Amino acid sequence: FDSYDAVAGAADLANYLAREDYSGIVVSSLEHGAFGEGRLINTEYFKLPRFEASVKNFAAAYKILKDVVKDEKIDILHSYSPLSSWLAYLVCRHTDASHVTTCDKFYRKNIFNYSMVLSKMVIVHSEVVGKHILGSFNLPRDRLRFIRPSLRLEDFNFQEVDQRSKTDFSIAIIAPRGMDGEYEYFLKTMIKLIRIIPPIKITIVSYRSQLSQNAKDELRALARRLSLASHVRFFEASDLRTEFLSQFNLLVFSAFQESAALRPILEAQAYGIPVIASRVGGVAEIISDNKTGIFV
After folding, report:
1. CB burial class (10 A; 0-12, 13-18, 19+) of residue 252?
2. Which residue, among 241, 243, 263, has the nearest Cα to 253 in the 3D structure?
3. Could you please report the per-residue DSSP string of 229-294?
């Protein structure tokens, strides 16, 4: 879901620029369909080769992006990850565009991640990440901007708790990329709860092949061993359709270390769905304990 945050953020920024009569362009190695049908409004889209796959692809992506920046007279080039930031940095060195990055999580100080602070401005969404960037990368404070993560609430249909189903209780579990082991831990904790509330339905949510087929097979086998097979299903989000979250009564965000993927929490809150999560990193800044969610 780290990539989900990046794609959704790109779409939101592009649409905001369009509403404010600015010209925004999205350039990505993802297929246009990843942004969802009709999600990009009055925004041009350019496809890059998968530049993370090889040096040859990176060189090809550099040429395409540089041509786009020159042809479209781009003033600001915004990037979201270390490799895309190297690409944007090199293009800006050979064009008139200015480079801005969004640093969404704790990056270790090394040459690969250093691209995140080579830009003229670094945007962060949480105070803890901002402090980390200032301290670890010695970034001058005047180049850091804190922008709290937010959503356009008009895009979501908020429902009060009493408007939701009273016969079935549906729980979604999301674990950010690299924390897939949390799904197994979660299933084991559900045994006692299902004895108390038998109608519970559990949905394990992943984004764009985050879970391999082997991982899904292992989780299904675990569910059978725990006698949970009839309660568990899998949902793989392939684009930015957020409506699937609205069907749940509760979201469990299973991350026990700093995660970039805050977007699912914000979307759940926009639908009126309470969230259970750990008090880590930026998560602690967007949930009010015992009001919009519960910390465990």
Report:
1. buried
2. 263
3. GGGEEEEEE-SS--GGGGG-SEEEE--SS--S--HHHHHHHHTT--EEE---TTHHHH--BTTTEE
Residues 6 or more apart whose Cβ sits within 8 Å of residue 94 = 66
* Long-range CB contacts for residues 99-107, cutoff 8 Å, separation at least 24: 100/76, 102/9, 102/78, 103/129, 103/133, 104/2, 104/5, 104/6, 104/80, 104/129, 104/260, 105/2, 105/129, 105/258, 105/259, 105/260, 105/281, 106/132, 106/258, 106/281, 107/82, 107/133, 107/136
pTM of the model: 0.82
The pLDDT tens digits for 60-94 are 999 999 999 999 999 999 998 899 999 999 999 99
Over the stretch 108-140, which tens digit does the pLDDT of each residue have? 899 999 999 999 999 998 888 899 999 999 999
**Residue among 199, 183, 290 at smallest CA distance from 249:** 199
Strands (E), the chain: 25-28, 44-47, 76-79, 98-103, 121-124, 144-146, 169-174, 200-207, 232-237, 250-253, 275-277, 293-295
How many angstroms separate the CA atoms of 133 and 106, rounded?
8
Q: How many CB atoms lie within 10 A of CB 92?
A: 23
